[in-house]
Design a protein that fits this description.
Helices cover 44% and strands 14% of the residues. By secondary structure, the chain is an alpha+beta fold. 0% of the residues are buried.
């Protein structure tokens, strides 16, 4: 859920929406993975309100992975880009260690597959 918080009324609406989500999940017998839920404050104003799902307080974080994209509190892409680059380096190093041949065309094909 995403909401723009301007005052306490907006915070109450967000908590009400979370309560409605819990009620809906109970009605349809679906569990909410609370370990994957958190609060991300975007922007310079940090709101450390205690939001909860089923009596579990949601942690406030500086960054979160959503659909494979790392979103930070300042919406800068550096964290996501650095993580993607690190993952590519790990894959390239694993391929480099796995092959005895140092033929560039073979290594490129192995990396692209």
């Amino acid at each position: 859920m995403y909401v723009k918080l301007l005052d306490n009324h907006d915070l109450e609406k967000l908590q009400g929406a979370l309560n409605s989500l819990v009620k809906w999940s109970n009605t349809w017998q679906l569990t909410i993975s609370i370990d994957k839920c958190c609060v991300l404050n975007i922007g310079s104003t940090q709101n450390y309100a205690y939001l909860h799902i089923s009596n579990d307080v949601l942690p406030v974080v500086d960054q979160v992975r959503d659909l494979g994209v790392i979103v930070s509190h300042d919406l800068r892409p550096a964290t996501h880009i650095n993580a993607t680059i690190a993952k590519a380096h790990q894959r390239a190093n694993a391929i480099h260690r796995a092959f005895v041949s140092r033929d560039i065309s073979l290594l490129v094909r192995a990396f692209l597959v």
